[in-house]
Amino acid sequence: MGAAPASACGGVHSPEQSGAPTPMLGGMHTPSGLRWGGSVTGRPPLRSTRGGMEKKEKAVAGERQARVADRIRVVLAERLEKGLRDPRLGFVTITDVRVTGDLQHASVFYTVMGDEAHRADTAAALKSATGMLRSEVGKNLNTRLTPSLEFILDAIPENADHISALLREARERDESVAGLAASAAYAGDADPYVKPREDDDEDAADDDLDEDDAPRA
């Protein structure tokens, strides 16, 4: 009859009843399971992984953009290789395709052989066939929406042709100058300031003879 009464928690005595010391936090009693950092289990708090997830999502989106752009380039190149019914279309080469982040617009860069008139006719033909070419792209893409197409003349080959023309002109001028130099003749003697060595030897020999012929005193 002298036994101590059990607690309400299944017969487990609280720290106050058992006499066990309790940890202190700023001078106040805390439950025995509480640790610094606010974790009751004693584990460190989880760090935010938002930054790593954002980088991974951007990398995945960039890879998808590249795949879609490359697929569009292949589809358009194959379709244009078959030709269009528009006689204005020249010999076109697709050089690059760039797709926006939402995959709703594609800028298609191309080159065309010929002069300015050929480039203008080809631009008009591509603009007229944009709808048909977009439908062709949509059939070969696994995307929810088919991106709009914009054809842009690539200026890099034109700059390369201009540089090649300048180099060709410079080479022709160098060849012309070299030809004039090879056929040029001296206005006077080849080297009027240098006396041949043979003449110096002959003059020295004449001076010796003169000394020998001179009367001795």
From TrEMBL:
<feature type="compositionally biased region" description="Basic and acidic residues">
    <location>
        <begin position="52"/>
        <end position="62"/>
    </location>
</feature>
<feature type="region of interest" description="Disordered">
    <location>
        <begin position="1"/>
        <end position="62"/>
    </location>
</feature>
<keyword id="KW-0963">Cytoplasm</keyword>
<comment type="similarity">
    <text>Belongs to the RbfA family.</text>
</comment>
<feature type="region of interest" description="Disordered">
    <location>
        <begin position="188"/>
        <end position="217"/>
    </location>
</feature>
<dbReference type="GO" id="GO:0030490">
    <property type="term" value="P:maturation of SSU-rRNA"/>
</dbReference>
<protein>
    <recommendedName>
        <fullName>Ribosome-binding factor A</fullName>
    </recommendedName>
</protein>
<comment type="subunit">
    <text>Monomer. Binds 30S ribosomal subunits, but not 50S ribosomal subunits or 70S ribosomes.</text>
</comment>
<dbReference type="Pfam" id="PF02033">
    <property type="entry name" value="RBFA"/>
</dbReference>
<keyword id="KW-0690">Ribosome biogenesis</keyword>
<dbReference type="InterPro" id="IPR000238">
    <property type="entry name" value="RbfA"/>
</dbReference>
<comment type="function">
    <text>One of several proteins that assist in the late maturation steps of the functional core of the 30S ribosomal subunit. Associates with free 30S ribosomal subunits (but not with 30S subunits that are part of 70S ribosomes or polysomes). Required for efficient processing of 16S rRNA. May interact with the 5'-terminal helix region of 16S rRNA.</text>
</comment>
<dbReference type="InterPro" id="IPR023799">
    <property type="entry name" value="RbfA_dom_sf"/>
</dbReference>
<dbReference type="GO" id="GO:0005829">
    <property type="term" value="C:cytosol"/>
</dbReference>
<feature type="compositionally biased region" description="Acidic residues">
    <location>
        <begin position="199"/>
        <end position="217"/>
    </location>
</feature>
<dbReference type="InterPro" id="IPR015946">
    <property type="entry name" value="KH_dom-like_a/b"/>
</dbReference>
<dbReference type="GO" id="GO:0043024">
    <property type="term" value="F:ribosomal small subunit binding"/>
</dbReference>
